[in-house]
Amino acid sequence: MKFLSISLILILSFSLSLRAQRIDSLFLEASITKLQHSKEYTMKVANLMPEEKYLFKPTTGEMSFGEQLLHLSSNMGWLCSSYLDASSNPVTKADMKFQHKEEILSVLNKSYDYAINILQRFKPVNLADTVSFFAGPLDKLQIINLLNDHQTHHRAQMLVYLRLNGIKPPDYVGW
């Protein structure tokens, strides 16, 4: 009886471990797809704004449209290189000074490709790893969620910038 109980506990533990690994893999696959779609949608938003409006700010305290894109790009690179992978952030301080649309689009594209590549190489087993973040300890799963939330926040601001300039935003690209 004791052997049977121990065997059942081991089988159940192994089964739960496999299920947890599958859930981690599904989360990571969904995060990659979401980031790919986010790139597609953000690039559409960025391309819609005419170059002469890349310096547009709704108020003096806001970032310009171009600055929003560069900030979004820099943040993606920073989160990935600081918390998910040890590779170098492809966005440099010099990139953050760009003002021309084509330069900014290049940085944006480079940032998304870098972040997507990081997630494609990321191991699901590392999602629970804890990192020291300025707002307190977070696990890497939370960093991946932050990666998405931050770009969504700034892209939403840019949609308002488009509308304030009489430009209809593109249809949403979801999951």
**Overall 3D form:** elongated
Overall pLDDT metric = 88
Approximately what portion of the residues adopt beta-strand conformation? under 5%
Number of separate helices? 4
Question: How many strand segments?
Answer: 2
List the helices and strands in order: HHHEEH
- Which strand order does the major sheet show? 1-2
Give the domain tally. Answer: 1
Distance from N terminus to C terminus (CA atoms, Å) equals 50 Å
Report on this model:
By secondary structure, this protein is mainly α. The chain has one domain: Four Helix Bundle (Hemerythrin (Met), subunit A) (Up-down Bundle), CATH 1.20.120. 65% of the residues lie in helices and 5% in strands. The protein is built from four helices and two strands. Strands 1-2 form a two-stranded antiparallel sheet. Strand 1 and strand 2 form a beta hairpin. Helix 1 packs antiparallel against helix 3. The longest helix is centred in the first third of the chain and has 47 residues. The radius of gyration is 20 Å and the shape is elongated. The chain starts with a helix and ends in an 11-residue tail after the last helix. About 3% of the residues have low confidence.
